[in-house]
Amino acid sequence: MSNQRRKFLKGAVAATTGAAALGFPAIVKAQGPISMRFQSTWPSKDIFHEYAQDYAKLVNDMTGGDLKIEVLPAGAVVPAFGLMEAVSKGTLDGGHGVLVYSYGKSNALALWGSGPAYGMDANMLLAWHHHGGGKELLEKLYSSIGGNVVSFPYAPLYTQPLGWFKKVMTKPEDFKGLKYRTVGISIDVFTAMGAAVNALPGGEIVPAIDRGLLDAAEFNNTSSDRALGFADVSKICMLQSYHQNAEQLEITFNKTKYDALPAKLKAIIANAVDAASAQMMWKAIDRNSQDYITLQTTDKVRFYRTPASILQAQLKAYDGALEKKMSTPFVKEITESQRKFAERAVKWEQDVVVNRTMAYNHYFGNKAPAKKA
Q1: Cα 370 to Cα 319: distance, rounded to the nearest angstrom
Q2: Strands 149-156 and 94-97, how do they pair?
Q3: What phi and psi, each to the nearest 5 degrees, are found at residue 175?
Q4: Cα–Cα distance between 368 and 155 in angstroms, integer?
Q5: I want to staple 317 with a disulfide (CB 3.0 to 4.6 A). Which of 59, 116, 189, 284 is the partner?
Q6: 40 belongs to a structural domain
Q7: Is residue 67 part of a domain?
Q8: Order of strands across the sheet with 302-305?
């Protein structure tokens, strides 16, 4: 090595040492990005899978590439209903789904959105989760079933339709003997109403109707339902229901891997959840309302409002189903907490928020709502 090169290297080392002594960071070899493999519980064509990709992009962008989340569709690694277990075991680093898909692990998980939520909508239920004790209860619940996961409920969903049918549903008795798809505690609700219920993941519902294995089914919203092909097997959709009036989505991380992340990345993950939640609601308003029109004009779907008698029967069946589960761990504690929050929050909302129907009719005319059954 030449004397000139020795002097250069010696000077570089001295400069680095001096910079560190003055409080400047020394130049070190950069670490590669942390990669995480996620799976959603949705087919790739579903808007929900798009929401999962939206969240991943937010994290990837906000971390400047220090954390890279790759999102796979349902079934890429495990079936949709096997997501929580796969994330818990570390087979996947994280996932995107709904809490009710782990209903088989704990019936109490259905209380995050599967049911009338004591009059709350999904956004209010998330308010309960963050400020009424739900977050702490969920952490204890997951720990009790060995769930090695960190859970972020987010993305409050709008009221889901009663579902897709071969005939207009006019009374509670129409459910007797009906082969119907739903999930969570809604299984118990519609079973009590006389239906033969089958819980299937989203991508399997339409093929089951097409083969006659189901007479009817609910999934979620006009965009998802249209993408999954419901209009190909049914031309009747019943709007409004209490079975999933307040559901939200869930982002999960394997707890071991999450806990090992730097504090900065954990903060970005949490803030990205809130950002994705807001963006999802705005996108849903835009896309769901567009697809609602397309389903009527292009796909020739007829929409009907669920009769009050069916809604009342749902409430009665839900109360009965819930009463039978009061001995299940956490169910009583969660429902008491939700009731306490809902009693004041819903009363406040009903007193404060103006009914927007008058304003809509003032500007656009008194357009007929969905048909009455």
Answers
A1: 28
A2: unpaired
A3: -80, -15
A4: 30
A5: 189
A6: yes
A7: yes
A8: 196-198, 179-181, 216-217, 163-165, 236-239, 302-305, 371-372
In degrees, rounded to 5, the angle at the alpha carbon of residue 358 between the alpha carbons of residues 355 and 363 is: 130
How many independent structural domains does the chain possess? 1
Domain that holds residue 149: 34-157+246-286
Structure tokens at 264: 């900065």
Q: Which residue has the tokens 């970005």?
A: 268
- Between the two ends of the chain, the Cα-to-Cα distance in Å is 91
Stated as kind and residue range, the H or E segment containing 121 is: none
Tell me if 234 is assigned to some domain: no
**CA 311 to chain CA centroid, nearest Å:** 23
Q: Which two tokens stand for residue 322?
A: 């819930």
Q: Which residues contact 260 (CB under 8 A, 6 or more apart)?
A: none
Residue type, 218: E
| CATH number for 145 | 3.40.190.170
Average pLDDT per run of 10 along the chain, which is 373 residues long? Answer: 44 41 40 91 96 98 96 96 96 97 93 95 98 98 97 97 98 98 95 96 94 97 96 98 96 98 97 98 98 98 98 98 96 98 98 95 84 82
Whether residue 293 is contained in a domain is answered as no
Residue 366: per-residue pLDDT = 79
Cα 282 to its chain centre, rounded Å, is: 15
Question: Which helix (H) or strand (E) segment is 170 a member of?
Answer: none
pTM across the whole model: 0.88
pLDDT of residue 372: 82
